[in-house]
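A reminder from the course coordinator: this example appears on the midterm review sheet, so study it carefully.

Given structure:
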């Protein structure tokens, strides 16, 4: 998910480009304003932590872009592309290393495991919002 800080900084195209250049397939994409309930569901593992209210306020401050991605090891690959969660600790060349400001304003949200990705996608998308198709360049990225 592309967070409000990336949208305000006009980084949408750059971030989507990195996903595509890695050979991953985008099967769902939409801009949305998350409700308080959706934020609580998406970040349920952080409720009660010292930074949660700041995170919730930030995520609710503007639109986000939800992205459903498919591909072999997609969750792991996206996590590597994103870099460390705390942006100042993220390696240069990663999304957070190149553009992130701090732990909260770190440009993107990524799922940490396939099961969690499925849970989060169910919050962000309806089943009919996923589009299945074949990438014609599939033979080049194997």
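Designed residues:
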């Amino acid at each position: 998910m592309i967070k409000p800080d990336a949208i305000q900084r006009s980084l949408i195209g750059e971030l989507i480009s990195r996903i595509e250049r890695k050979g991953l397939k985008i099967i769902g994409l939409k801009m949305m304003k998350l409700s308080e309930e959706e934020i609580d569901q998406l970040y349920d593992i952080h409720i009660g932590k010292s930074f949660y209210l700041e995170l919730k306020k930030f995520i609710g401050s503007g639109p986000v872009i939800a992205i459903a991605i498919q591909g072999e090891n997609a969750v792991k690959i996206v996590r590597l592309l994103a870099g460390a969660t705390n942006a100042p600790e993220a390696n240069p060349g990663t999304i957070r290393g190149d553009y992130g400001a701090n732990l909260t304003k770190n440009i993107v949200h990524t799922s940490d495991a396939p099961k969690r990705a499925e849970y989060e996608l169910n919050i962000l998308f309806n089943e009919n919002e996923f589009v299945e198709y074949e990438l014609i360049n599939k033979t080049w990225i194997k």
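The mean pLDDT is 95. Residues 114-124 form the longest helix (11 residues).
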